[in-house]
Amino acid sequence: MINADTIAAPITPLVTSPVITLRISGSDALKVYSLMEKGGKSINISDIKSNYVSLYRFNIKKENLHDDVLAVFFKAPHSFTGEDVVEISFHGNPVLVNAALSAIYSLNIRPAEGGEFSKRAFLNGKIDLTQAESIQELIYAKSIEGINSAYNQLQGSLKYELDSIKNRLLKMKAVMEAKIDFPDEDTVDEELPVLKQDCENILSVTGCLISSYKSYRNANRGLEIVIAGKPNVGKSSLMNAFLKEERAIVSDTPGTTRDFIKESLYIGGIPVHLTDTAGIRLSDENIEQIGIGKSRQKIETADIVLLLLDVSIPLTEEDYNILEDTKNSNRIIIGNKLDITDNKSYDKADIYISAKTGINIDELLEILREKTSLYDNEIKSNAAAITERHHNILINIKEIIEKINLSLGIYPIDMLCIDLERAINLLSEITGDNYTEKVLDIVFSSFCIGK
Hints:
By secondary structure, the protein is α/β, with parallel strands linked by helices. Helices cover 45% and strands 17% of the residues. One of its GO terms (biological process) is tRNA wobble uridine modification. Homodimer. Heterotetramer of two MnmE and two MnmG subunits.
């Protein structure tokens, strides 16, 4: 036990709902049964069985309120926090539950701070720091793969991978330290190819974990997809076709869209932020120039660019300029207006459609699903770095291992051992085997009350 005090808080939203559940954790958790009765009789604490749900009457004498509740006791260390825990489910009236909380706090039980239940679980050795962080990520994940990645981490997938890396580094360090202790033996020289291979293997794993962070973030924050092209090429019509509603104004007048329009939807199970931009062309109008400038910025930062071409007319200088500007983008080149032409002569187009009538829109969506699945597939493995903290530390570890790999056989062994120790300590910082209060504050400060 690392805390002498007992804490309580709602673990479900404190809003009008069918049920609101409170959690009480700490050595005095069983005191809350003094507020309950069963069959008109007070509860004898010695009769309470762990892991059994029972129906009680909860009495709030100050307000003369009562409720029929379900309560369950988890005896330490077999609970989420590793402490004695009681969870009580009330009818979901916030006024009632607030009154119940006041009665509970009167028993020398204090309100829990944000993330304090999870923090206690970590400090009591029930979960490591990556698992604690996965709780937050699991709750707020916005895609199926995001949920799966967070759940896998909650089950210890990332810790397992990091522990595997740590064990390799410890073995490397042991080989190098043997050379320091026995300088006359050729331990390192004989093991040099193996040590270099170990470095390569570790770099491969850390590289995959670093890449998985971007994929996970994309899958959860949503991919930015920008519809681009010259004016009057059908961008707004394509936006409406995706949304299946008249969201963007469609007009034959070039330059109608002066600012970008943004909407969100799901493609292939991944959240997508779709942006209809102002048409890009040479213009003397100040307001239109501002819109065109914003369009170029959106294109530069987009994950995917949908570049529309009007194939009912020959390509113009504006088309060629946009094709050149987006050549380094992850783009899909779309020939539009098949409803008024059958021209498919532009050989670089990935697909031909009619945004107005819906011709080949489903086929375009299928291409987009394939594109989004590339982000999806990078986080399908069990282990993934799902927080910025993991990502930044892994980058530091990768840089250290790269340095060691290049320095083997060149720099003194004792210097390389220092670098190895740094990498090992950084791995321990991710899992929480080594931690500071500052690290815990960073991790748990974003948790809300009840976690």
